[in-house]
Amino acid sequence: MTAAHSAAAPLTETGALLSVRDLRVVFQRRGEPPTVAVDGVSFDVAPGQVVGLVGESGCGKSVTSMAVMRLLPDRGVRVGGSVVMDGVDLLTLSDDEMRRRRGRDLSMVFQDPLTSLNPVIPIGLQVTEVLRRHRGMNKEAARKAAAELLERVGIPDPRRRLDSYPHQLSGGMRQRALIAIALACRPRLLIADEPTTALDVTIQAQILELLKELVRETGAALIMITHDLGVVAGLCETVNVLYGGRIVERAQRHRLFTTPRHPYTHGLLRSIPRLDAPPGEELPAIRGSVVDNLPWADNCAFAPRCPRAVERCVGVSPEEETTGGRLLRCHNPVPASAD
Amino acid sequence: MTATWLDRRRSRIDDLAGGRSLGSEALRRLRREPAAIAGAVIIGLFVVVAAFAPLIAPHDAAQPFPELQENLRPGSIPGPQPGFPLGSDQLGRDFLSRMILASQQTLLVGVLATLIGLAVGVVIGTVAGALGGWVDTVLMRVTDVLLAIPSLLLAISVAALAANPSQTTVIIAVAIVGVPIFARLLRGSMLAQRSSDHVLAATALGVRRPAIVMRHMLPNAIGPVIVQATLTLATAILDAAALSFLGLGDADPGRAEWGLMLAQAQAYLEVRPALAFYPAIAIIVVALGFTLLGESLREALDPKGRR
Amino acid sequence: MMLRFVLRRLVQVIPTLLLLSVLVFAWLRSLPGGPASAFLGDRATPESIANLNRLLGLDQPIWVQYFRFLGRAVTGDFGASTITGEPVMVEIGRALPATIELSVAALLIAVVLGIPLGYVAARHRGRPLDVATVVGTLFGVAVPVFFLGYVLKDVFAVDLGWFPPSGRQSVAVDATDVTGFAVLDGIMTREFDASLDALHHLVLPAVVLATIPLAVIVRITRASVLDVMDSDFVRTANSKGLAPGTVRGRHVLRNALLPVSTTIGLQVGLLLAGAVLTERVFVWGGIGTLLADAITLRDYPRLQAILLLGALIYVLVNLLVDLSYAIIDPRVRLS
Description:
Radius of gyration of chain A: 21 Å
Distance between the termini of chain A: 37 Å
Number of strands of chain C: 0
Largest sheet of chain A: 8 strands, mixed
Strand order of the largest sheet of chain A: 6-7-8-3-9-10-12-11
Number of strands of chain A: 12
Structural class of chain A: alpha/beta
Oligomer: heterotrimer
Shape of chain A: globular
Distance between the termini of chain C: 9 Å
Largest interface: B-C, 50 and 59 residues
Radius of gyration of chain C: 24 Å
Structural class of chain C: mainly alpha
Number of helices of chain A: 10
Order of helices and strands of chain A: EEEHEEHEHHHHEHEHEEHHEE
Largest sheet of chain C: none
């Protein structure tokens, strides 16, 4: 590892399954100034580990996952840095080599289960096509395996469901089917991008529980992308908080929730309604929105919205600092004893 | 999801009705669009030529010239010569002057046909959309049937009603093709707005319904209507030319209109193909101009706004 | 399930057809001089008009007249052509195969060229090939059909002599008439030279008639493919690491062609209108020629029949498209 990377020292020292280093994604549309969606993001995922990427919409968490999967369009997008899995930088692979890995070594579950399934072909085919592609199964074997998969993700009457079309399933069942597809080839890394956002609250818990079980059972690592800290609390071991395309804080789940240091994390946690709060107490919210962001180059992007902003926050870009397993990017963090 | 073909034909119109208004954002996008610029330039030139046609034309377009007429005989129409850059037409008149003057009539036919179709369509659509209920059902059933007749067939049957075809009958026949389209468009826009916040707010404030329709709902439908009208201008000019070609155009030999000139030139194709060629090119360019501008406008107003 | 869907669709067409008949009836009543003089044409005298009025029941109440008209229309009785004196339906029956042959050939050209072109343009979105295709489609719609017909005829038939300038068959080829479909007849009677000759005649008019539908199909295919390529399920398909061919065929094309299939139905309207113009240029002798003559000579019985028939074909073809849509789109079939 080079000196430039030392600031992003991995939490897991050795044997990372996935190492993302200095990932940078720039969108360039004709006639418009380029937008930096992901700005030097680095993190590691150990085998079997559950890692969270948390932030509000536009913070770059989904773009990060798309960049890791290499699903961003070729044109109008520049991707820099490295995404190393099994000692190979995925960003340097040819399209064909990447296609052989997707769905087999790493796979993804998306937000909207209705639009993420092909509406005009049966569920069964959408499961078997992965098995046949990556595991070379014949039709019958793949169908049998698909039925088992559907059963495993909790879809009742799986044999019949193989011939159903997506619109005939409920939202929760569709998301289960998508999970079955993603886990069909037992990938070692699963990326779940807001997998519960489009679902009813009661279904959300079931899907999270299912994901948790399956990850434990198959030994796959999971990158959980969400804006919902509740999801993080129940699932993730390590949590990365993203703001404006950069990681602003990273810590073990427990430490992040008990002693958030970055004012943004602090604000996010405080804006969750609590049952033990006295009635009538005002719910603290983070002021403003992403549109107020400053460029990271000479500032802290969060400064305009930050209650703890000091003079240096505008004019000097805060660097990542790692102390005691916690990464922080802030000039004036919340004192460790606060809250 | 059980859309029928007619539903889908309707929905293409309704989609437009749900688009955003012609705001500064849309105009800003248009200014960067080469297709929109090209269309606007073509239409601008066309309108300027039409407006100043009598001043631009080098000669009197209605007047046969002896020096052209004396060379006019069966099987030979004089070509370009000093003073007459495009030569003579079949009656010994200056072809260039007639081409220039014809821009006026072509613009007139296109604009009038579109405006009449628009006016009738807007009234039907507004009434249907604003009143709803059985009025809406009946009016929309009728427009659906008009949509179910292929447009040129509809125009032909209307034009054929006249014992003697004239420019007026051509304009009316072409206008009728536009009526059901504009009616659906307006109705869709009205329906979309009936439940919109600003209309609900006006209703809650006790503003009377006609006032709401006129002041709040109609102005918001203007964007999609402009798009459809621009596209209709292109098809109106082409449909008028087709009617002339089928012998349903104006019979007056003095009238100069591109579609008519193109139709009349059929008889002289062997003798002087230029007589057909120039009006045809003029029609193609103008139709292209309106289509380019109309399609760019549609894209600028498209709520999806990706292409 | 499927049967109920078909029946429901059929029932839905009935009000449209009824309303259409009312419109045509109203149209017939508003003809210059009334239906009687329209039917009689130049032969009309005040006595003959009064006579025919009684014969046609025009002295009856209007609703009685309508139902009589409807009864005749349903049985295909549209009277005799004022040009030839023959029953209109006989004339139409004779001319229909020519028009169908021409329209089918044009539609084939439009579909076979249009879908791949639209797909390729979408794959090259924003690049020169795409821009050229889009500009081409805009031109295709802006060129008056009959002008294009004359230009192609002049270049490829008159100047180059590659194709015959007009007609459906060469006189020299002694073809046997079985069905009226010249190409098919040649195959059925094993007079293959007649088939080839008919195809040779078919090329130019079919190309001309195909231009507008081709332009429309290219544009719809392109827009539809772009739409689908941006969709979530194609992203899912890519995230599964499927082979590019599988993504394209099973996921992109299969969805993108759904809206295209409806468009093909809508093209039939354009084909009917275009056929009128094309047939005139190439002296084709089909429905378009009948219609053009009927317009020139104000043959209203013939006009009325062709108008109704045109709308009927349009409605029925689109009904067929709807039904086939149900077969390819499970959401329609199963809902």
